[in-house]
Amino acid sequence: MYKVRSTYEFIQRGMAGGGKARKFFVTPTRYSDRRFLKAMRYYILLTGIPCVVGITFVNVFIGPAQLAEIPEGYVPKEYEYHQHPITRFISRHFVNTPQQEYEKMAHYLAIEQEKIEARQAEKTVKRLMRKRGDGHWYYYPVESPVDRYDEEELKD
Hints:
Elements: H1 7-10, E1 12-14, E2 23-25, H2 31-62, H3 85-93, H4 98-132, H5 145-155
Antiparallel strand pairs: 1-2
């Protein structure tokens, strides 16, 4: 059984008119790999260095929050309970408050309840239509004001 020593020896072609010893190795280019790795290092450093500098600045000069007495009549916001300033910033600007999450869920549940009630009403109407032998319950011919205006013009 032939054992492949490396990936580059797997793709090879013998030279025309030569013996078995002379081989022309066809190797894939490394240009794309090098280009990708250079771009990856560049973008990691482009974003990593400012992030490290910013986090260090916040930790050294601002520091974590200290516990203090809450003044009379003051109600703290949700984001003020976090100790680290970066966590407070993220909680304040990018995360919904528990009140907002509750209201979103209540709205979703109200919409779902309305859908359930509409389906039940439609089911009841269809059942009564079958029972009484009614026609199409959802079709009512309606005359619009435009139709009446056209009929009046035709009569004149």
